[in-house]
Design goal:
Blueprint: H1 3-14, H2 28-45, E1 51-54, E2 57-64, E3 69-81, E4 86-94, E5 99-121, E6 124-151, E7 154-165, E8 168-174, E9 177-178, H3 183-221, H4 226-235, H5 242-250
Antiparallel strand pairs: 1-3, 2-3, 3-5, 4-5, 5-6, 6-7, 6-8, 6-9
Helix pairs in contact: 1-3, 1-5, 2-4
The chain binds 2-acetamido-2-deoxy-beta-D-glucopyranose (6 copies).
Signal peptide: 1-18
Protein name: Lipid-binding serum glycoprotein N-terminal domain-containing protein
Keywords: Signal
Length: 257
């Protein structure tokens, strides 16, 4: 699951602490306020630094027979960069349908590890110690047809469509010995593999994540009116949730390929 989605899910789950009062259905104005409050909240909850250490992993085996890959990797001194560089764009609110669109992407999410590798990657024998660096550019999602409703005094998502995005992946390997091809060729194989896999699973994953988001939002907001959600977001936009969010999902970023 990508960084931003994990982030949004954890942030949303936090919204379950509101106090219940009854209220009417969301109006155009309320939706605008909700959007503004959500942005403020996300902004405050983003890490206040652009980098964070990643957990080490030892002798982790990656086996993918379809691409003739079976390697064991140890990664140390891991660091993630660009963790707070998030771009909200293509925002549009349609007052006639009360539908919102936007895209949320991380500009350049980079992972760097000191690695020790032994085995076979794309049929090529690899071994040695070196540095692995992976940049993921423009990863995130585009949300459209996002509409809200209030059912039984609970703010719920009435509809949501989501498309996962990823512009490019850049892999850089240094210091590792490769048989039968250059390091550059190996990097290219890894980049193409990640992009192809992303393309292949994009539609299904987009639907899956849209479903998770919907039910997670719905669950978090059950029993809480639109105005209460707005108030909660405003009251909690002081950054108090920050470390919590980041620590919770940073561990899931250790996986390299
Ligand atoms: C970042 O936030 C954490 C927790 O909120 C705080 O302990 C730390 O001092 C902050 N760092 C900077 C550079 O503001
Ligand atoms: C992405 O970020 C890393 C780490 O800050 C940097 O070294 C790299 O040049 C950036 N890549 C691009 C394409 O901007
Ligand atoms: C609203 O609440 C009533 C009474 O608790 C319940 O019967 C009804 O199914 C609820 N409606 C929805 C859409 O959840
Ligand atoms: C919102 O979530 C609740 C609980 O998971 C579910 O009953 C309801 O159908 C959901 N609404 C939409 C529009 O998905
Ligand atoms: C992924 O799909 C996009 C458009 O759907 C296409 O432009 C791109 O070449 C594809 N990339 C790979 C690696 O399959
Ligand atoms: C942020 O606001 C919440 C709720 O009002 C409060 O409990 C918390 O102490 C505040 N945290 C900071 C760091 O100001």
């Amino acid at each position: 699951m990508n960084f931003l989605i994990a982030f949004v899910l954890v942030a949303t789950a936090a919204a379950a602490h509101c106090v219940p009062i009854n209220q009417a259905s969301p109006t155009e104005n309320q939706i605008k306020e909700l959007t503004a409050a959500t942005l403020l909240f996300f902004h405050s909850a983003l890490p206040n630094t652009s980098f964070a250490p990643l957990p080490s992993f030892v002798n982790e085996r990656l086996r993918i027979p379809e691409i003739d890959t079976d390697v064991t990797t140890t990664g140390k001194n891991g660091m993630a960069y660009g963790i707070n560089q998030v771009l909200l764009s293509q925002y549009e609110f349609d007052a006639s349908t009360l539908a919102t669109k936007f895209s949320l992407t991380s500009l350049n999410f980079t992972r760097v590890y000191d690695i020790e590798v032994e085995g076979k990657l794309f049929g090529h024998k690899v071994s040695g110690e070196g540095v692995l660096r992976q940049e993921v550019l423009g990863e995130g999602y585009y949300v459209s047809n996002l509409r809200f409703e209030e059912i039984n005094h609970s703010l719920q998502i009435a509809s949501l469509e989501l498309n996962l995005l990823m512009d490019d992946v850049i892999v850089d390997v240094e210091g590792v010995t490769v048989d039968g091809c250059s390091v550059q060729q190996l990097e290219k194989l890894m980049e193409d593999y990640v992009l192809t896999k992303f393309n292949e699973s994009r539609e299904e994953q987009s639907k899956l994540i849209a479903g998770i988001m919907k039910s997670q939002f719905n669950k978090s907001w059950a029993g809480y009116s639109t105005d209460e959600v707005i108030q909660w977001l405003r009251d909690n936009s002081n950054g108090s949730g920050q470390m919590d969010f980041i620590q919770k999902h940073i561990n899931s970023l250790a996986r390299v390929l």
